[in-house]
Structures are given as C-alpha cells and as structure tokens.
Design brief:
The chain has 314 residues and is α/β, with parallel strands linked by helices. The protein has one domain: TIM Barrel, CATH 3.20.20. It has 9 helices and 13 strands. An 8-stranded parallel β-barrel has the order 1-5-6-7-8-9-12-13, surrounded by 4 helices. It has a two-stranded antiparallel sheet with strand order 3-4. Helix 2 packs parallel to helix 3, helix 7 crosses helix 8 and helix 8 packs across helix 9. The longest helix has 22 residues. The termini are close together.
C-alpha cells in the first residue's frame, strides 16, 4: 500500500527561490512531519503550475525551470517523492506550445532539467493538469488540454527512463463516460480521482440524456461514486480535506459559516471518504491525500476516524 501526501510549494519572486507552504500549526513543516504521519510518498506541486517559476515557453526555459525546482527538492532530502510537471504558467496560460514535437517542447525541457539533478529519492513525476477531459478538442481550444499524442510521448519518455507517472484529475460527476480517464489509464501508473464530495453539496449525472444534479449524499458517495471508481474506471481516490476541519473557512461545502459548525460538519464530510471504503469493504490499496497546508488537519481526522471507525484516516 502506498500513501501519497501532497506537499504545496510556492515560488518567491522577490527572493528568487522556492518556499514550502506546509505548516504544523503556526510552524513551518519539515519532511519528518509527513513521514511520521504514515506517508511513504510525497508529491511536490504548485497547483497546476501557477505557483511554480516560469521563465519562458521553450525547451531551454523548461530545462532551467525544472532544474531549479529539482535542486530545491533535493535540498530537503529524506523522502521518496514525485515532482510535478506543470501545465499552466502563473498567468493561467499554457506553459509551452502543445503543437510542437515533444522533443522541442517546454515539458521535455522541464523533465530533462529535473532529471539533471541526481536524486535516489525521486521515484517519478506528477502530471499537474487536473482536467479529466484534457484530450477533448474543445478543452484544447480553451487552453485546458493537450493532444493525446503529446501525452503519450511524455509518458513513454518518463517510463523509458525508469520513472513512474501520477495523475490526479478532478471528477466531480457521475458521468464518467465523457472523461479521458480510461484513455489515459494505460499511460499512467497511478490515477487518483478527486471525488469533490467534501467540496460540493450536489453532483451532476445524466438523466434522460440530459445533465442533471442531485444531492451529493454519503449514500451517493458510497453506493454510486465508489463503484464507478473501482468497477468502471479501475482507479483510486484522492482523500480531500483542508483547514475547514479546524474551524477555518476553506474548500469545504459548509463554508462560509461559524467556526464550530464548519469544524464539526467538515470533519464528518472528510472522514466519509474512509467510512465509505470501510462500510463497502473496499479499502483502496493506494491513496493520495489533499489536506490543505496544515498537518493538524490530518491529526484531527486520524483521531476522529479511530474514535468512530477504529480505522486510521491515513
């Protein structure tokens, strides 16, 4: 069983270096904080790329940016990890030219720059674009996708070098047939879909050929979304939570509201991801965890799940 923890990073333009956004309470977190909580893999990322340094759209710029990020990660040491391949730049635009041959692209440069820093702890890379429809022509035209041929080249290059590839697409719908997840699956080693149950009180589905929405209840998560993930897609979940379980307004569906209510109800929503697996007797072999930037979120959820389900959240 592998458990991937998401470690958020931010480029500090004024200092010309990267900074970790992770904390334990009010203190800056260190690598030991994630290892001690049961994670054996870390994914270093900055959103879909917007928080990572960007110096230009060509191969040379990609190499420089990737090497810079890799050197910073290497300085942390001590944990097996995956490093993000960013898709978007800080202004929200695509970082490179998706119509160029792969060998000339920003992304080939980024990968080569990352790998120019030798590090035995690096196990692979993470494709940062979260769009589950990324190969659709309309998404490509809107700047939110890429041709499948380019993704195939990226995947082949990474695997030929002996590394693995992770993808965590957003899938806040029961209409899984329209996505590109099954097309991407042969190209990716680990796929963790984002259920979006923690964030949303409704979920789209197809009824009578028309997209409709219904309440996103625990029963829907357990009896509909979970079987789709396992039986239809054959992938895993990202466990979703954030500082809302501590009473601060974040991405939980209960925001905005009072701190006490947010803390109580959002803790339940976050723990429902584990409860659904336990009650279904289908605990995923591999899991990825989004928990905001504060490790105290995980501590609270671990305690809650042990008290209520006799099962650790992590």
């Amino acid at each position: 069983m592998s458990k991937f923890g998401l470690w958020w990073v931010q480029w500090n333009k004024n200092l010309g270096t990267y900074e970790s956004r992770m904390t334990v309470g009010s203190k800056i977190a260190i690598i030991g904080d994630i290892i001690s909580r049961g994670f054996d893999k870390v994914i270093f990322l900055g959103g879909e790329g917007g928080a990572l340094n960007y110096s230009g759209s060509d191969y040379k710029s990609g190499y420089q940016d990737g090497r810079e990020f890799s050197r910073w990660i290497f300085s942390l040491g001590g944990v097996k990890y995956y490093v993000a391949i960013p898709f978007k730049s800080p202004n929200g635009q695509v970082r490179g030219n998706i119509n160029k041959p792969f060998r000339e692209t920003y992304w080939k440069g980024w990968i080569d720059g990352v790998l120019s820093v030798e590090d035995p702890n690096r196990e692979g890379v993470y494709w940062a674009l979260e769009n589950a429809w990324m190969f659709h022509e309309k998404q490509i035209e809107m700047g939110g996708g890429l041709p499948i041929e380019l993704f195939e080249d990226i995947s082949e290059y990474i695997h030929d070098l002996g590394y693995k590839l992770v993808w965590i697409p957003k899938l806040g719908t029961l209409y899984w047939e329209s996505t590109n997840i099954k097309k991407a699956k042969p190209l990716v080693d680990y796929i963790f879909v984002q259920p979006h149950y923690y964030q949303s009180s409704t979920i789209p589905y197809i009824g009578d050929g028309v997209t409709r929405e219904k309440p996103y209840t625990f029963d829907v998560l357990k009896s509909e979304y979970l079987p789709i993930t396992i039986e239809k897609l054959g992938v895993s979940w990202e466990m979703e939570a954030d500082e809302s379980v501590l009473g601060h307004c974040g991405n939980c569906r209960e925001c905005p509201g009072s701190g006490i209510r947010i803390s109580s109800e959002c803790t339940v929503y976050a723990s429902d991801y584990m409860r659904a697996q336990i009650e279904s007797r289908r605990v995923f072999k591999h899991l990825a965890y989004y928990f905001g930037t504060n490790f105290e979120v995980l501590d609270k959820l671990n305690q809650y799940c042990m008290e209520n389900y006799r099962w650790k959240y992590i």
